[in-house]
């Protein structure tokens, strides 16, 4: 057991956990932030995607200890002042979810790709960047629509393509 | 996952020291193979020594035609490096098709090479580019580095620090990914040096891991064209047969991927 400290959704946290504790379990069990899901447990489905130091990662494939000292953003940290984040709003408006299980990972992935591609985001790029996220309900069409709509809402044209 | 003890190394010297203090310690960098393997209890290192925060293992530099990529550089960083895109766009293209975006944010070139998965992408690039694998102890030519399935010339405790290679005159990588795992069922990296020398390396298809194909190299050195690759006989006898495809199917894939790579180079 060791103390693991990091910043989650802007809040400094420090909890005791075993070294083998996965980041996703640290977030769900130690911090009680259950929006981040465990889907496949084999690193394929992307339901567990969070941002670590500004980059989308699979929290089921990273130890909490590896993430110590980093800045984590989960689905709970997206909405500000009671208003849905533009990506969340776009998923709602475009029916980008059905059962909702994959949605937290999809939304975090969408925010990450909008951050990286900005104005260059087109349908092909969106589909390629959803490679690490599995949805068994929607058939993806409305997820893609929602991400493109959100990118437009967020003024993608004015954003700089990161990296 | 079985219990393990996590250590974060601050330098290469520190990492070696921490690794040597336990019999069953393993290095972890991005962990995109190791952590899932530990979750399945297929690996159970007593200790993990994290290399991800070692500054001297990061970064990309291009001096003239000499390219150096720090072992701790992520696939996403390789894929999007402007310097690399100018010197060797083939390796950026390769990196941009490893796994998925989330995996590319964590996984590193050093980790991929050290693991030497027979279906990983990077080993083929290293072999075709005639890269040098720089470790904390020595420099290893790639021809001596990849020794078999998940086997390399690395000694116990040795760490890959960087890879270096001369930017090729032309190069490209083409892979046929397994539709589910995205690992290569056959991936072919072709590289032509400024002096005309050609090296062709194949991943995903060999029953003993990544390998160079002499027939394709000779044909492409004589005539750098997809047609030349099409005329080469690819022997299926040393290729993998599994539920995803027979050796004969893979032999054909190797030829098709070689043609596509030459056309794209």
Write the layout of secondary structure elements.
The complex is a heterodimer of chains A (163) and B (265).
Chain A: E1 2-8, E2 11-17, H1 23-30, E3 49-52, E4 55-58, E5 71-73, H2 86-93, H3 103-117, H4 123-129, H5 141-153
Parallel strand pairs in A: 1-5
Antiparallel strand pairs in A: 1-2, 3-4, 3-5
Helix pairs in contact in A: 2-5, 3-5
Chain B: E1 5-8, H1 12-20, E2 25-28, H2 34-39, E3 47-50, E4 60-63, E5 66-70, H3 75-80, H4 82-87, H5 89-95, H6 101-106, H7 109-115, H8 122-128, E6 132-135, E7 139-141, H9 142-145, E8 146-148, E9 151-152, E10 160-166, E11 170-177, E12 184-192, E13 198-203, E14 211-212, H10 214-222, H11 226-230, H12 247-264
Parallel strand pairs in B: 1-3, 2-3
Antiparallel strand pairs in B: 4-5, 5-10, 6-7, 6-10, 8-9, 11-12, 12-13, 13-14
How does this structure look, described?
The complex is a heterodimer of chains A (163) and B (265). Chain A has 163 residues and is of the alpha+beta class. Chain A has 2 domains: 2-76, Ubiquitin-like (UB roll); 86-158, Orthogonal Bundle (DNA polymerase, domain 1). In chain A, 31% of the residues lie in helices and 15% in strands. The longest helix of chain A is centred in the C-terminal third of the chain and has 15 residues, at 103-117. The model of chain A is unreliable at 156-163 (pLDDT under 50). Chain B has 265 residues and is of the alpha+beta class. Chain B folds into 3 domains: 5-50, Uridine Diphospho-n-acetylenolpyruvylglucosamine Reductase, domain 2 (2-Layer Sandwich); 55-166, Uridine Diphospho-n-acetylenolpyruvylglucosamine Reductase, domain 3 (2-Layer Sandwich); 173-264, CO dehydrogenase flavoprotein, C-terminal domain (Enolase-like, domain 1, 2-Layer Sandwich), CATH 3.30.390.50. Chain B is 34% helix and 25% strand. A 5-stranded antiparallel β-sheet of chain B has the order 4-5-10-6-7. In chain B, strands 11-12-13-14 form a 4-stranded antiparallel β-sheet, sandwiched between helices. The longest helix of chain B is centred in the C-terminal third of the chain and has 18 residues, at 247-264. The interface between A and B is medium-sized, with 30 and 29 residues.
